[in-house]
Sequence to fold (313 residues):
Amino acid sequence: MENIAEEVLMGNRYALAKAITAIENERENAMEIMQKLYPHTGHAYVLGITGPPGAGKSTLTDKLAKEYRRQGKTVGIIAIDPSSPFSGGAILGDRIRMNDLTLDDGVFMRSMGTRGSLGGLSHKTADAVKVMDAFGMDVIFVETVGVGQSEVDIVKAADTTMVVLIPGMGDDIQAIKAGILEIGDIFTINKADHDGADKLATELNMMLDLDGVMKEWRPPIMKTIANQNIGIAEVVETFGKHHNHIDGNGQLTVRRTERTKNEMLDLLDSRIGEHIRRNVVENGKIDKLVEEIKARRTDPYTEAAKIVSEMLK
Ligand SMILES: Nc1nc2c(ncn2[C@@H]2O[C@H](COP(=O)(O)OP(=O)(O)OP(=O)(O)O)[C@@H](O)[C@H]2O)c(=O)[nH]1
Ligand SMILES: [Mg+2]
Fold:
């Protein structure tokens, strides 16, 4: 395919897949694709879906996507594949559940692997979102298992984030406090057909009351039974309410500005880092330096500062 970016803009799904693969595998043409697509981004609304393994995130996303399709919206789905370290066997399940959607031209589903390193994944996810955005998807879901900081970073690509919890997590609710409470614009207690949904809602309400006294937006707590399609339309409605809220008070612009700024800074970091690394590692300078540092004839702080200031000359 000659011009992947142009094909993406013309609505070629095969090109869309190729573009995301280029990003995922850090192919050389990835940057050029992104440069060409960037002017066409900024139209999609991005929804983050996160929560513990097996909470029903994929099932929910599938049902929510269908609800948006009923409303005539096109939908992109990026599922961050929680391969090995977190939970196994989810990929096949996701594919099977998402299968019926792939017959629909208005939906494009893609999973992206962690391949051991979660670090670069947040950038790759953000770029994949942009590709789907440029392709013309109205709504883009990013599904990720919310267990650590890296996953929280991934969700930062979203305009509105929903945290999916399930009953019977017991003391786990304490663990949730850490990062997840802050990133949830909306909470849903999925598997509400299981015992303990009300108890969890009460606990969560208490935590949110403590957390959000002065907040403009009090994250609503929804209840869903995703596999029975219960509560789905209500969640879509709540997404719309949050969208309107942050659109109305300028928060959406603030979030997007912040995101653009961070992306720019991250890109600079990695470009400069790459440049220095290439210089210092490839000419063997690093090995000599390490010997000097080990012998305590100098220290890493001084040497790092020296290398940077030399490079900036
Ligand atoms: N009883 C019940 N089961 C559900 C509900 N929602 C999803 N499930 C089931 O829970 C299992 C896990 O659902 P997934 O959608 O794969 O969960 P996930 O959060 O995407 O899982 P990972 O991506 O592996 O973290 C599947 O067998 C679903 O059919 C629900 O509301 N009630
Ligand atoms: Mg899943």
Remarks:
- The CA atoms of residues 82 and 88 lie 8 Å apart.
- The pocket of magnesium ion (ligand 2) is lined by residues 57-58, 79, 90, 94, 143 (CB under 6 Å).
